[in-house]
Design brief:
238 residues; alpha+beta; Alpha-Beta Plaits; Aminopeptidase; eight-stranded mixed β-sheet; four-stranded mixed β-sheet; 7 helices; 29% helix; 26% strand; Leucyl/phenylalanyl-tRNA--protein transferase; Acyl_CoA_acyltransferase; transferase; Leu/Phe-tRNA_Trfase; acyltransferase
Length: 238
Amino acid sequence: MSHDIFLLDKSNKFPHASLSQESPNGLLAVGGDLSATRLIEAYKNGIFPWYCEGEPILWWSPDPRCVFPIDSIHVSRSMKRELNKSSYKITINHAFSEVVDGCSAPRVKEAETWILPEMKAAYEQLHEMGLAHSVEVWSGKDLAGGLYGVSMGRFFFGESMFSEGKNASKFALIYLSHYLAENEFLLLDSQVGNPHLYSMGAVDIARSEFIKLLEEHIAWPQPKDLWQPKTLTSWRQF
């Protein structure tokens, strides 16, 4: 059963995610702003912004939800060989702005990006608050790829990734998953699935299950030094 699309007011409260539209899948609300307070409230409740230039801000909570259970990422034999022989260097929070810039560049066959200047500014603020983080893949001194997202409780909410070097975004995802597993995380959220994500071990779960897990684990206290800038030196075959 579909419900009306909610028009957000000046408060930072969202309607419950279960009231999202069936078509388009997950559209819940329109309007509001990208303040840190509103974004934090959104993520806590399984909601995220996603819109295009010239549109009002659209807020989504799709059903099903595409996630990586932390211990389920798939590393193929060929990818394992690539990981073992690679000269890439993998870091956390060494170049957040540059990673967001890389993710915001229009993709091949896509004329525009959804990571607009106001979105970039909003996530920069979350980064300064210690909530948004990047994983960088370096080829020498050049940024070959990476990903960024928001981390709260036992969750990492992935926002976007990019590659300019071979397999760079896959390396970022694999190393991040290992790091999250080492630190007792539960899920890496990918929002909406695609063949590439599924090939690497992503699965769909019911939105109701995702929201229940958020309610149970979003308040988990992360280690204080978890997101200090560092180099990641290991990955594991799950």
